[in-house]
TrEMBL record:
Source organism, top-level taxon: Eukaryota
Key words of the record: Membrane, Transmembrane, Transmembrane helix
Pfam families in the record: Sugar_tr
Coiled-coil parts of chain: none
Naturally occurring in which organism (per UniProt): Scytalopus superciliaris
Record GO cellular component, one term: plasma membrane
Transmembrane regions listed in the UniProt entry: 6-26, 38-56
Residues in Major facilitator superfamily (MFS) profile domain copies: 1-230
GO biological process: D-glucose import; dehydroascorbic acid transport
Stated name of the protein: GTR5 protein
Length: 230
């Protein structure tokens, strides 16, 4: 039982690793908006599997659902930052990207509060708690089709300049947006001369060694800062 419980808890992180590893390939091939929509479907399926696990009397369904949730979360983290950052105007880009950290913390707090035995953590209601992660995914699945694809993706990967201009006007309103388009073109020109490193190449690259150390230290020590206790 201890082994099964440990696997059920940790398999979320394994799924997250797989999801984040494949995010770059998927976003380049299919675009950020399509990936987010498909990711929402994956989360809804995972929530449904976990929510029905008690009726089916199958702990394997919780295991599978947790794994699928991990993949969805691993895909969502980089996708969210990229899409929100790219559709936001420059003056709001930093604020828009910082909202993700706020909502992660809010989601953790809501999960821990809802998991109390007086609320959804009871013997009869815990399947609803497990399935609750599908609700935000459903909201995004319904609302996201009204948003355009990321303008930088349309221009840099699809080379659709008219589609990029249409998306910019839909997002930022009518006006002269040639400066933003020029910035995207400069970024595209820079990317052509920049080698994209794999994870293994990144670890082996001496010039990035100290930056890598800094990220590892920050990511590790943040677990000790007390945020989970708070």
């Amino acid at each position: 039982l201890l082994f099964l419980w440990s696997i059920t808890v940790s398999i979320f992180g394994i799924g997250g690793l797989l999801g984040s590893s494949g995010s770059r390939y998927l976003t380049v091939k299919f675009g950020k908006k399509k990936c987010l929509l498909c990711n929402n479907l994956l989360m809804i399926v995972a929530a449904s599997i976990m929510g029905c696990s008690k009726i089916a009397q199958s702990f394997e369904m919780i295991l599978i659902g947790r794994f699928m949730c991990g993949i969805s979360a691993g895909l969502c983290v980089p996708l969210h930052h990229q899409y929100v950052g790219e559709i936001s105007p420059k003056k709001l880009r930093g604020f828009a990207n910082s909202t993700s950290s706020f909502f992660w913390s809010l989601g953790k707090a809501m999960g821990q509060i809802s998991g109390q035995r007086e609320l959804l953590g009871s013997q009869s209601l815990w399947p609803m708690l497990m399935a609750a992660c599908g609700f935000p995914a459903l909201v995004q699945l319904v609302t996201l089709p009204f948003f355009p694809e990321s303008p930088p993706y349309l221009l840099m990967h699809k080379e659709d300049q008219e589609g990029c201009k249409t998306a910019i006007r839909q997002l930022w309103g009518e006006g002269h947006h040639q400066a933003e388009i020029d910035d995207i073109m400069k970024e595209k020109a820079t990317m052509k001369n920049t080698k994209i490193l794999s994870v293994l190449e990144l670890v082996k690259e001496p010039a990035l060694r100290w930056q890598l150390y800094m990220i590892i230290i920050l990511t590790t020590t943040i677990q000790l800062c007390g945020i989970n206790a708070v």
